[in-house]
Write a structure and sequence with these properties.
Layout lengths: L2 E3 L5 E2 L2 E4 L2 H9 L7 E5 L5 E9 L4 E9 L8 E7 L5 H12 L3 E6 L8 H6 L1 H15 L6 E2 L3 E2 H4 L8 E5 L8 H7 L7 E6 L7 H9 L3 E3 L8 H16 L7
């Protein structure tokens, strides 16, 4: 069943209106017809079973049949803080992090980040949000992850106070692996996990020292050095497997 995310303002009683790019996708690509049942998400985690009742080039009208008891979100909240990479690598990071179930994605400007045009990076926000939305549809998520504007490294520190576990993959760490960390924590008490990934050039040692003061677990992901756009996927996948629902609950 096809899923569409629409604003809560477009849902009134048992009536729902789909607008924007989804309209063309419905009638021209998917070729859905009146009477087709679809899933509608109100962008706030509530989903409905609905039936298309009218299609035109400006909007698609649907009648809500029932509320769906659907929750495809992870039992743990994973917050990815990604050292801002070059080129369009952030597009891939947003897409795959959304598929994996990450709750929030925040680009971080660390010492070794190269930002030739910082204003240009902020203009990419709309694209990143669209990528997250499309990945959300594809992966059947219930909530759209929040994609935040890039922040400076020291602003990141203020966001770590409420985290239950802070993971920092670091190429110079070889004695503390993620397996070891997960075996030493009370898994039932971990609800909010921060993953902090360095940019292409890695972290400055001074940044690692600061993160240690915030009780961050400086970890290795294994003997091979991963690219910045790979490290976040791997770390998120492993922690979702150990503490979340990746791989199934049984």
């Amino acid at each position: 069943m096809h899923k569409f995310f629409i604003s809560k303002q477009n849902i009134n009683g048992d009536s729902a209106i789909i607008e924007g790019e989804d309209v063309k996708h419905i009638y021209k690509v998917l070729r859905l017809e009146e009477g087709t049942q679809i899933s509608i998400n109100n962008c706030d985690g509530v989903e409905y079973l609905a039936e298309i009742i009218d299609i035109n080039k400006k909007e698609v009208k649907a009648r809500i049949l029932s509320e769906l008891q659907t929750n495809n979100e992870s039992p743990i909240d994973v917050y990815l803080f990604q050292g801002l990479p070059k080129s369009q690598k952030m597009d891939l990071i947003v897409q795959k992090s959304t598929e994996l179930g990450v709750k929030e994605i925040t680009p971080v400007i660390t010492e070794r980040v190269v930002v030739k045009n910082e204003i240009g990076e902020f203009k990419k926000m709309d694209r990143w949000i669209r990528i997250a939305l499309e990945a959300c549809k594809q992966s059947k998520r219930t909530m759209i992850p929040k994609v935040n504007e890039p922040i400076e490294f020291y602003h990141l520190l203020d966001l770590l106070e409420n985290m239950d576990l802070i993971l920092v993959p670091y190429e110079n760490e070889d004695g503390n692996g993620l397996k070891k960390v997960c075996s030493n924590v009370n898994k039932g008490s971990i609800k909010k996990v921060a993953i902090i990934i360095g940019p292409e050039g890695g972290f400055e040692e001074s940044e690692i020292d600061v993160l240690k003061k915030y009780n961050a677990e400086i970890i290795t992901l294994g003997p091979r050095i991963l690219r910045t756009e790979t490290a976040g996927f791997v770390c998120a996948s492993l922690i979702m497997y150990e503490l979340g629902d990746l791989g199934g609950l049984y």
